[in-house]
């Protein structure tokens, strides 16, 4: 299996209720999603 493409998408998620920790209060989260593609076209 040979990887031909790697893509990273940053997704902003709005929280329905603010979340508070010792680091502060969060109203949204940013999460990266990585998509890999192989030479035969498989993605995931």
Keywords:
44 residues; mainly beta; two-stranded antiparallel ribbon; 77% strand
Give a concise summary.
This protein has 44 residues and is mostly beta strands. The chain has strands at 3-21, 24-38. The protein has one domain.
Ordered list of secondary-structure elements with their pairings:
Blueprint: E1 3-21, E2 24-38
Antiparallel strand pairs: 1-2
Q: Which consecutive residue ranges, at least 5 long each, have pLDDT under 50?
A: none
Q: Give me the strand/helix succession.
A: EE
Number of helices: 0
Strand segment count: 2
Instruction: Count up the domains.
Output: 1
> Distance between termini?
13 Å
Relative helix content: under 10%
Tell the overall outline: rod-shaped
Q: Which class of secondary structure composition applies to the elements?
A: mainly beta
How would you sum up the major sheet?
2 strands, antiparallel
Computed over alpha carbons, the radius of gyration is 16 Å
Query: Strand order, biggest sheet?
Result: 1-2
Multimer state: single chain
Average pLDDT: 95
Fold and architecture overview:
The protein has 44 residues and is an all-beta fold. The chain has one domain (3-38). It is 0% helix and 77% strand. It has no helices and two strands. The chain has strands at 3-21, 24-38. A two-stranded antiparallel ribbon has the order 1-2. A hairpin with a 2-residue loop joins strand 1 and strand 2 (24-38). The chain is rod-shaped. It starts with a strand and ends in a 6-residue tail after the last strand. The mean pLDDT is 95.
């Amino acid at each position: 299996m040979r990887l031909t493409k790697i893509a990273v998408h940053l997704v902003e998620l709005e929280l329905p209720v603010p979340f508070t920790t010792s680091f502060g209060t969060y109203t949204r989260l940013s999460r990266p999603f990585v998509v890999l593609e192989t030479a035969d076209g498989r993605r995931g």
